[in-house]
């Protein structure tokens, strides 16, 4: 009974942790707008947390600069299982306009499994919510696979 | 055992300690012999005291022992008496137990020091002096014992004279302690000149009817003398210095035992000798000094960054509680006061021993240099946490039981007397308790939890003997907290009752009928009523807590409380992941721990900082000013 | 036989009502209502009312990471002790005429027992060894210090008022305080108790650590302070404790100031013409319902509205606020009570 309850709850209460890996701040603002009254992701249970240890979904913005790489990876490793990694905007997926720069270590998928990519520069809030909902489904699945 | 042989027990329990001191001098070179002498002496002293519990505490006997059988003749007490009523015995049992525990602890704690035989000699002298002081029935004898214990304590403060500040602390203690002793001597002289006797019982019979200016002077002198011994405000800075420098086992004695002597002296002085506790002015004096000690010292403790200095200030703060409760002059107040005195000896002893354990292993007590010891010293941490919870008054430990009685006593007093001042005392006591908690949170965080500094990685748990001594005290902390009814019935209420039976005390020494014939208004032996207005049943509470804890644990475990993981770590992409956590030093220094509080009180704290200059001249001046104020208070108000 | 029944009764008290299960359901429900209300006040749809339940169960299913710098036992045990203490406190707070355990603890004891959950947060934070937790626990302690003084004054004022009216001098028993109110009307109707009630209302958000007094767990600046290193089930237990604390504080307020409402409920049932065992059951159910409604209203007043309209205070502002404004209110009440007004 508990297991089923837990599995269902996992999809309904995804907590976000936002990592800025050298973003231009565009995506960051857009992520916050997802939580504002107009889009209100909280109705789906989304909540911003202050500590990676509390998070279920890690949202990474920015092209993963060489400086931030170690911190990003270390932060992601602090997130307890089951966890989902969502990249937001084109930067963490491809490097976007920064591609080829000596200062860029991205894309993020070189280092970790990325579960959901939300493309765009910056993606619309609707797209972000869509991606996050997809991530909750993956979360639920992952929880189901756990012993 | 008949009464006749029991009569000798008080003198035995004092003599055995002094005897031990001399034997240690002779045979002290041998380690085994030295330790066995010290342990045997302190253990025997404790057993002698324990044996007296039944006749004195439960049957209400008062033991009067005249040295050389020089019993009073012609209505005058010529000989020297030991007089043990329930109050004396209460402190006697307390002190002998604390001394015994300190002795167990010392064996391994002092193993790295030089001159250990001298340590034991002084230690046993100190213990003997303290025991003698609470058991004696003679004012001059009391002064002698006070001198012995003061000088032994001064010498022991400076025992580790390689430690920075040890000699300075000892010097300060010597100067101000001597002022205190001199005051006691002067008070004794004045009383002797007036009453022509030094026997406490006879003085108690004579003084109330001859309450003159001279006796008022004596009162002020004796009061200041005893309050120096208890380190009450304004003598509190001495305690901090002395505790900081002395070995932990001696800190236990100074804080848990020496201060109790001061309290005992004040109880004898106000309730017995002068029988002035029915006066509002005496009550005000004690309650005021108690409350000020309570509050000032706890705020001083908040500002400390040395483990033992912090504990030292707390010790005065707790003594403030005791004095406040005793000063209420109600049955409940006295019972609560002596209960708290007992608890203070137990939990503060435990805390000092824990501090000693930290010092023993790490070589420092600076809060800024310590941290994360809970992983290296798990037993010490648990024992410390028990002590910290007890002193902060967290139920169900003993500190809560007695503090809770003190709150009731002060509030009852406020309601009965209609005096709003006592209400303020209740509030101050409650707030002080929370501040105590705050400063122990600070110690817990900066010594036992948080990051472990690199230098401390070699630290080990302390030897078993030291943990055993701490374990005894921790056990007592829990036991006396869980069974407050039994403790009050068998220990504190008899002690408090004895205070209301001054007539019996006088008659036991001077022969029956003396009090009635010598005094105009012989004190009535009214049975005091210990009325509590609160409800607290720690055992039931603990049972409930345990059931709840068990239930929650079961639910938590059934709900996959344990660690779970996905298990595909073999994935190459994740290899980089397990880089682990980087260690960061704590952002909060122990000084800034309660910034939000200290910022709002910054003027108060800077004032206090300037006041406590650390210069011995200042402290001597404070002593003189306090004496002058006490004399003025006695002359003008009383 | 009677012994077994008695034991069973106490077990039901501890586990179901007013113990664990009741706390769990009501506490989380109050928390959910609070979140919904805040969302509505901000013109949002807001999470479902059952959101805290989802959060709790989700956290139960997460991995529990124990940091390298943490002391494991304390780290895992601290949240459980805090929760158990809160459940036990709830047992001592009477629901109008019903009280599970009336002769175990009085209000001064409850005042101290309320420290244990806060202390469990502090100990857990300290045991996690994180610098953020260090900052957080120091703020948590200052918050406790701030709330303690006005809370003491409020409780003393109530004790004095009731004690004087009952001719006892002072009355620390919470059961007696409620019984007195059943007899002579709620304390909130007394002029002298109004400031105390106001002070208590202001203490509730501070004690529960909600906006604007959540400096200790400020997620935006110090990563949720003492909880920074917690994950999985222990974190869930802390979130649950936080929810139950809302219930504890609001039901304590009801017991202290609205105890007289129980009398009205009894009269209501009488008027309906029900009698015997059915009446008792009906009264009991009504009492629980009314208590819950009161808790919801109080949560709305003290937590949701305050949350929606204020921004977080700095810790020294918080301290100053409590020791001046709130203490002032409580002091007025105490002085009025002292002179029997």
Task: Explain what this protein looks like in three dimensions.
The complex is a heterotrimer of chains A (147), B (638) and C (341). Chain A has 147 residues and is of the alpha/beta class. Chain A has a single domain, classed as Rossmann fold (3-Layer(aba) Sandwich). Chain A contains five helices and five strands, in the order αβαββαβαβα. In chain A, strands 2-1-3-4-5 form a five-stranded parallel β-sheet, with helices on both faces. Chain A is globular and about 55 Å long. With 638 residues, chain B is mainly alpha-helical. Chain B has one domain. Chain B is 70% helix and 1% strand. Chain B is built from 26 helices and two strands. The radius of gyration of chain B is 25 Å and the shape is globular. The two termini of chain B are 46 Å apart. By secondary structure, chain C is an all-alpha fold. Chain C has one domain. Helix content of chain C is 73%, strand content 0%. Chain C has 14 helices and no strands. In chain C, α4 packs antiparallel against α6 and α12 packs across α13. The termini of chain C are far apart. The model of chain C has no long low-confidence stretch (mean pLDDT 83). At the A-B interface, α1 and α3 of A face loops of B.
Number of helices of chain C: 14
List the domain count of chain C as a whole number. 1
Q: Report the C-alpha radius of gyration of chain B, rounded.
A: 25 Å
Encode the helix/strand succession of chain C as letters.
Answer: HHHHHHHHHHHHHH
Topology:
The complex is a heterotrimer of chains A (147), B (638) and C (341).
Chain A: H1 2-12, E1 15-20, H2 26-35, E2 47-48, E3 57-61, H3 66-77, E4 84-88, H4 91-94, E5 116-118, H5 125-145
Parallel strand pairs in A: 1-2, 1-3, 3-4, 4-5
Helix pairs in contact in A: 1-5, 2-5
Chain B: H1 3-6, H2 9-27, H3 31-51, H4 53-58, E1 63-66, E2 81-84, H5 86-109, H6 116-135, H7 139-157, H8 166-195, H9 200-206, H10 213-229, H11 236-245, H12 248-273, H13 280-302, H14 307-327, H15 331-362, H16 378-391, H17 398-417, H18 420-448, H19 464-482, H20 484-499, H21 502-510, H22 514-518, H23 538-558, H24 595-600, H25 602-611, H26 616-636
Antiparallel strand pairs in B: 1-2
Chain C: H1 2-15, H2 20-41, H3 51-60, H4 72-92, H5 107-113, H6 115-128, H7 131-166, H8 174-184, H9 194-208, H10 219-222, H11 232-257, H12 261-272, H13 277-309, H14 315-338
Helix pairs in contact in C: 2-11, 2-13, 3-11, 4-6, 4-11, 6-7, 7-9, 7-14, 9-11, 9-13, 9-14, 11-13, 12-13
């Amino acid at each position: 009974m508990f297991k089923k309850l837990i599995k269902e709850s996992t999809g309904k209460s995804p907590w976000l942790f936002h990592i800025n890996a050298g973003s231009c701040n565009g995506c960051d603002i857009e992520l916050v707008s997802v939580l504002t009254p107009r889009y209100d992701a909280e109705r789906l249970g989304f909540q911003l947390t202050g500590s990676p240890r509390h998070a279920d979904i890690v949202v990474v913005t920015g092209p993963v600069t060489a400086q931030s790489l170690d911190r990003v990876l270390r932060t992601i490793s602090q997130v307890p299982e089951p966890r989902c990694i969502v990249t937001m905007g084109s930067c963490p997926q491809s490097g976007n306009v920064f591609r080829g720069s000596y200062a860029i270590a991205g894309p993020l998928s070189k280092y970790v499994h990325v579960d959901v990519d939300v493309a765009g520069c910056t993606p619309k809030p609707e797209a972000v919510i869509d991606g996050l909902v997809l991530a909750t489904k993956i979360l639920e699945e992952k929880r189901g696979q756990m012993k | 055992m008949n009464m006749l042989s029991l009569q000798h027990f008080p003198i035995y329990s004092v003599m055995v300690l002094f005897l031990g001191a001399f034997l240690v001098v002779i045979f002290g070179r041998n380690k085994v012999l030295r330790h066995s002498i010290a342990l045997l002496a302190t253990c025997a002293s404790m057993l002698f005291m324990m044996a007296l519990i039944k006749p004195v505490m439960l049957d209400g006997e008062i033991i009067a022992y005249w040295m050389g059988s020089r019993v009073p003749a012609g209505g005058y007490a010529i000989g020297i008496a030991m007089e043990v009523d329930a109050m004396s015995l209460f402190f006697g049992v307390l002190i002998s137990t604390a001394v015994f525990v300190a002795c167990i602890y010392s064996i391994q704690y002092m193993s790295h020091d030089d001159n250990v035989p001298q340590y034991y000699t002084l230690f046993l002298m100190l213990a003997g002096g303290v025991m003698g002081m609470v058991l004696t029935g003679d004012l001059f004898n009391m002064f002698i014992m006070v001198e012995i214990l003061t000088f032994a304590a001064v010498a022991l403060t400076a025992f580790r004279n390689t430690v920075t500040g040890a000699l300075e602390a000892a010097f300060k203690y010597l100067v101000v302690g001597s002022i205190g002793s001199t005051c006691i001597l002067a008070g004794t002289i004045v009383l002797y000149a007036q009453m022509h006797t030094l026997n406490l019982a006879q003085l108690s019979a004579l003084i109330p009817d001859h309450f003159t200016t001279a006796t008022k002077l004596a009162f002020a002198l004796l009061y200041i003398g005893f309050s120096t011994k208890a380190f009450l405000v304004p003598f509190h800075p001495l305690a901090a210095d002395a505790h900081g420098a002395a070995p932990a086992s001696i800190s236990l004695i100074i804080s848990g035992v020496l201060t109790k002597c001061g309290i005992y002296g004040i109880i004898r002085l106000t309730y017995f000798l002068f029988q002035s506790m029915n006066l509002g002015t005496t009550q005000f004096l004690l309650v005021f000094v108690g409350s000020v000690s309570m509050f000032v010292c706890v705020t001083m403790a908040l500002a400390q960054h040395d483990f033992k200095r912090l504990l030292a200030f707390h010790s005065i703060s707790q003594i403030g509680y005791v004095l406040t409760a005793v000063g209420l002059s109600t049955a409940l107040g006295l019972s609560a006061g002596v209960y708290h005195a007992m608890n203070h000896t137990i939990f503060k002893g435990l805390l000092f021993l824990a501090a000693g354990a930290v010092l023993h292993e790490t070589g420092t007590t600076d809060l800024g240099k310590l941290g994360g010891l809970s992983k290296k010293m798990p037993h010490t941490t648990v024992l410390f946490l028990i002590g910290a919870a007890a002193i902060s008054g967290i139920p169900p430990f003993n500190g809560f039981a007695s503090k809770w009685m003190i709150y009731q006593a002060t509030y009852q007093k406020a309601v009965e007397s209609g005096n709003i001042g006592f209400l303020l005392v209740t509030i101050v006591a409650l707030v002080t308790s929370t501040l105590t908690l705050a400063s122990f949170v600070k110690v817990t965080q900066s010594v036992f939890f948080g990051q472990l500094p690199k230098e401390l990685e070699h630290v080990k748990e302390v030897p078993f003997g030291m943990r055993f001594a701490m374990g005894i005290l921790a056990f007592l902390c829990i036991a006396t907290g869980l069974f407050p009814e039994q403790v009050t019935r068998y220990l504190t209420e008899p002690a408090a009752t004895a205070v209301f039976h001054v007539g019996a005390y006088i008659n036991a020494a001077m022969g029956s009928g003396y009090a009635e014939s010598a005094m105009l208004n012989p004190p009535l032996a009214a049975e005091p009523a210990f009325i509590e207005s609160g409800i607290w049943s720690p055992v039931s509470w603990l049972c409930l807590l345990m059931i709840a804890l068990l239930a929650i644990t079961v639910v938590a475990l059934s709900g996959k409380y344990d660690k779970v993981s996905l298990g595909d770590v073999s994935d190459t992409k994740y290899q980089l992941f397990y880089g682990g956590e980087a260690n960061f030093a704590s952002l909060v220094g122990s000084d800034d721990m309660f910034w939000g509080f200290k910022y709002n009180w910054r003027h108060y704290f800077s004032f206090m900082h300037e006041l406590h200059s650390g210069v011995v001249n200042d402290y001597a001046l404070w002593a003189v000013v306090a004496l002058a104020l006490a004399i003025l208070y006695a002359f003008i108000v009383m | 036989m009677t012994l077994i029944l008695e034991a069973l009764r106490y077990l039901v008290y501890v586990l179901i009502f007013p113990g664990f299960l009741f706390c769990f359901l009501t506490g989380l429900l109050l928390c959910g209502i609070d979140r919904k209300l805040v969302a509505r006040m901000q013109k949002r749809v807001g999470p479902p009312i059952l959101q805290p339940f989802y959060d709790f169960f989700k956290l139960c299913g997460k991995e529990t990471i124990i940091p390298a710098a943490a002391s494991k036992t304390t780290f895992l045990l601290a949240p459980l002790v805090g929760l158990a203490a809160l459940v036990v406190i709830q047992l001592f707070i009477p629901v109008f005429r019903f009280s599970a355990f009336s002769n175990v603890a009085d209000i001064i004891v409850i005042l101290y027992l309320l420290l244990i959950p806060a202390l469990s947060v502090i100990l857990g934070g300290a045991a996690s060894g994180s610098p953020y937790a260090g900052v957080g626990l120091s703020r948590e302690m200052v918050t406790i210090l701030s709330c303690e003084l006005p809370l003491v004054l409020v409780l003393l004022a109530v004790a004095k008022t009731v004690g004087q009216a009952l001719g006892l001098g002072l009355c620390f028993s919470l059961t007696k305080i409620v019984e007195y109110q059943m007899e002579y009307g709620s304390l909130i109707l007394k002029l002298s108790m109004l400031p105390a009630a106001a002070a208590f209302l202001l203490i509730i958000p501070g004690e529960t650590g909600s906006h604007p007094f959540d400096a200790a767990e400020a997620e935006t600046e110090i990563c949720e302070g003492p909880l920074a290193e917690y994950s999985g089930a222990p974190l869930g237990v802390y979130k649950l404790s936080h929810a139950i604390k809302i219930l504890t504080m609001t039901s304590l307020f009801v017991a202290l100031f609205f105890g007289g409402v129980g009398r009205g409920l009894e009269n209501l049932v009488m008027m309906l013409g029900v009698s015997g065992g059915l009446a008792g059951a009906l009264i009991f159910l009504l009492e629980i319902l009314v208590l819950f409604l009161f808790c919801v209203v109080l949560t709305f007043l003290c937590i949701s509205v305050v949350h929606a309209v204020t921004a977080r205070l700095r810790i020294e502002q918080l301290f100053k606020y409590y020791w001046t404004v709130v203490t002032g209110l409580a002091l007025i009440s105490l002085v009025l009570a002292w002179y029997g007004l």
